[in-house]
Amino acid sequence: PQLKREAQELFKSVKIFKPKSSRAESVEKFLFCQHKKK
After folding, report:
1. Domain ranges in the chain?
2. Among 3, 7, 14, 36, which one is least packed by beta carbons within 10 Å?
3. Which of 16, 15, 18, 13 is nearest to 28 (CA)?
4. DSSP assignment of 1-38, as one string?
5. In angstroms, rounded to a whole number, what is the distance separating the alpha carbons of residues 21 and 28?
6. Cβ atoms of 2 and 16 closer than 8 Å
7. CA proximity to 16, closest of 37, 24, 5, 35
8. pTM of the model
9. CA dihedral (35, 2, 18, 31) positive or negative
10. pLDDT tens for residues 1-38?
11. What angle do CA 21, 14, 18 make, to 5 degrees?
C-alpha cells in the first residue's frame, strides 16, 4: 500500500496488522509506526 511506503520514509519500523477481534470480511487494519527518522 502507498500509505505504508510513505510511512517507511518517516519511520524506521512500519507494520500493518489486522486485529484478531476484527471480522474476516472487514478491511480494518492498523498501521503501526515506531522510531521516527530524523
Report:
1. 2-36
2. 36
3. 18
4. -HHHHHHHHHEEEEEEE--TTS-TT----EEEEEEE--
5. 10
6. no
7. 5
8. 0.73
9. positive
10. 899 999 999 999 999 999 999 999 999 999 999 999 99
11. 15
